Amino acid sequence: MFSDVGVLELATLVVLALVLYGPDKLPEAIRTVSAVIRKFREFSESAKRDVRDGLGPEFEDFEFEDLNPRTFVRKHVLDGDGMGLEGIRNALDPRPELKEALDSVRDMADAGAARESPAGPHEGPVSLRKGVGGPAAERPPVDPDAT
Where is the segment annotated Disordered (predicted)? Predict the structure, then answer.
């Protein structure tokens, strides 16, 4: 519960409690705080038990800690089932499909340019290859009604 509280912080809290309550009222304050914490834990456990009973037998292994997104991802996505974080990144990476589509468009453009130009695929007016291109192609007429 207090995993990040160090010795210095704990000592500061004890000194602050002694100053605020004094040595004669401090034991009673500690008892009161511990009773409140105990009641709160009982209440939360009772609420968890009621929710589990209401969900039915198919949710017997349900843990409320799984509702935390980090715990859920750690338990269900990164549990070593063969598709860890790197597998998800590779599956969602669009670069291979985009490269394949770009290569097919380039091949089609080169094939079309080779049919139109007797000099070769890179001599025509349109080429999608980087750094290669012939003279600038004329623009088609603009239809102002269509735009």
Answer: 102-147
CA 1 remoteness from chain centre: 26
DSSP single-letter state for residue 83: -
Q: How far apart are CA 126 and CA 113, in angstroms?
A: 7
Give tens-digit pLDDT for 76-127: 766 655 556 677 777 888 898 999 999 999 988 888 777 765 554 444 455 4
- Report the alpha-carbon distance of residue 43 to residue 45 in Å, rounded: 6
Q: Check: CB of residue 29 under 8 Å from CB of residue 21.
A: yes
Is 56 exposed, middle or buried (CB count within 10 Å of its CB: 0-12, 13-18, 19+)? Answer: exposed
Cα–Cα distance, 119 to 126 (Å, whole number): 13
What CA–CA distance (Å, rounded) separates 31 from 108? 82
